[in-house]
Every structure is written in structure tokens, then in C-alpha cells.
Specification:
single chain, 223 residues, mainly alpha, Ribonuclease iii, N-terminal Endonuclease Domain, Chain A, Double Stranded RNA Binding Domain, 2 domains, three-stranded antiparallel sheet, globular
């Protein structure tokens, strides 16, 4: 079986347009000039669909919680780290179309590649089968993650700010170092510092990059 056929079996959906799924599984390194034909465009829509479906699910699952609690739950569930963990557990990396050189470097196992590919697959499934099919798939692969949230998690930026305040330090300072990529798929690198401690984060939005940087710095400070 081809990777697309294997992926369809994993998704539990037979695509009317299998080219969509093939595109979702294609890393930029295996695409045409300037990444044309890669999964970046499908990642763009998949990210939005994922956020909608998980937000809907949280409203249903925690009917008494206010927005202030639901927001951190959503951010944690759809974070790149969380998605990468799910993608790895589901074996998504085995389906990806990656150039030979990048494959030798182990790109198919990189967290950002796995998370982006999962979002792209969600985007492809949405375009081919609609919201109902996407809802079933997302709830299947994310059920354990959602049910493990006994309490609303604190987002990394809030946790880092509280860490600094408890130690009477200056509040974390965030600086956007670079902004690259096309308008539909930008990449931001943000540096955060607390005192002499520094860390960086990279993501498709400035807000997500700040969260990634804060998470990295917390890991350093708590080590």
C-alpha cells in the first residue's frame, strides 16, 4: 500500500480527492519551487479547523467553566508540543513525503514537522469530507489528552510571569528576532529573558512563538 492509502486507513476516511491527502503529507523539502505543493497551505486551514473543533468540544465537556479557564485548556491542547506528541504516537511520520536528504537528517521525527503535518491532514480531511468527519477524527486522537486535563493548565507566559514575581525579578521581556516565510505561512522567532536567563521559541504566530519561548525558559529555570 502507498503512504496515502495507509493514511486513509488511519484516518478512517476514503478521500474523494486523494491529492489533498498527498499534499498534506508532503514536506516542503519534497515539494516544488518555493514549497509549492507542500502541506503549508493545508496546515494554515487545518490550524483554524482544529481550534474550532477543540473549542466546541471544551464548551461541551466543561459547561460550567468560564472563558478564562477554557482558554488555557485550548492553548495547551492545540500547542505544537501537544500536537507533535499525538502525531508521534499515531505514527504520522511514517506517512510523510520528505526529500531523501532531509529524511537522513531525521526531519520526519522533528516536533514542528509532525505538528504541522497533523494540522495539514486535518485541513485536507475538512476540505474533502467536512466538519463532521474532522470532529470524529480529532476527538478520537485527542480524547486522552483532553481527559487528562483535570484542572485548567496555566499557559507558559503566565507561569513564567508568576515565577519571576515570586522571586521579585523583573517581568519577562519578549523580543521578536525574526519573521520569515510567506504571508500565508509566516514563522516567528521570539527571544524571552528574565534576568540573565534567555530562551527562544519559534512558531507560525507571534503569540505562539512567545508561548514556546516562555515554555523553553521555564524548563531551563526549573532544571
Amino acid at each position: 500500500m502507498s503512504a496515502v492509502e495507509d493514511a486513509q486507513a488511519w484516518l478512517g476516511h476514503r478521500f474523494a480527492r486523494p491529492d489533498l491527502l498527498a499534499e498534506a503529507l508532503t514536506h516542503r523539502s519534497a515539494a516544488g519551487a518555493r514549497g509549492r505543493g507542500s502541506n503549508e497551505r493545508l496546515e494554515f486551514i487545518g490550524d483554524r479547523v482544529l481550534g474550532l473543533v477543540v473549542a466546541e468540544w471544551l464548551i461541551e465537556r466543561f459547561p460550567a467553566e468560564p472563558e478564562g479557564s477554557l482558554g488555557p485548556r485550548l492553548a495547551a491542547l492545540v500547542s505544537k508540543a501537544a500536537l507533535a506528541g499525538i502525531a508521534e504516537a499515531q505514527g504520522l511520520g511514517a506517512f510523510l513525503n520528505i526529500s531523501r536528504g532531509e529524511a537522513r537528517r531525521g526531519v520526519s521525527g522533528q516536533a514542528t514537522v509532525l505538528a504541522d503535518a497533523l494540522e495539514a491532514v486535518i485541513g485536507a480531511l475538512y476540505l474533502d469530507a467536512g466538519l463532521g468527519a474532522v470532529r470524529v477524527f480529532i476527538r478520537r486522537i485527542m480524547e486522552a489528552s483532553l481527559e487528562s486535563q483535570a484542572r485548567p493548565p496555566k499557559d507558559a507566559k503566565t507561569a513564567l510571569q508568576e515565577w519571576a514575581l515570586k522571586r521579585a525579578l523583573e517581568l519577562p521581556s519578549y523580543v521578536t528576532e525574526t519573521e520569515t516565510g510567506p504571508s500565508h505561512a509566516p514563522r516567528f522567532v521570539v527571544r524571552v529573558s528574565v534576568g540573565d536567563a534567555v530562551a527562544r521559541g519559534e512558531a507560525g504566530t507571534k503569540r505562539a512563538a512567545e508561548q514556546a519561548a516562555a515554555s523553553s525558559l521555564l524548563a531551563i529555570l526549573r532544571a
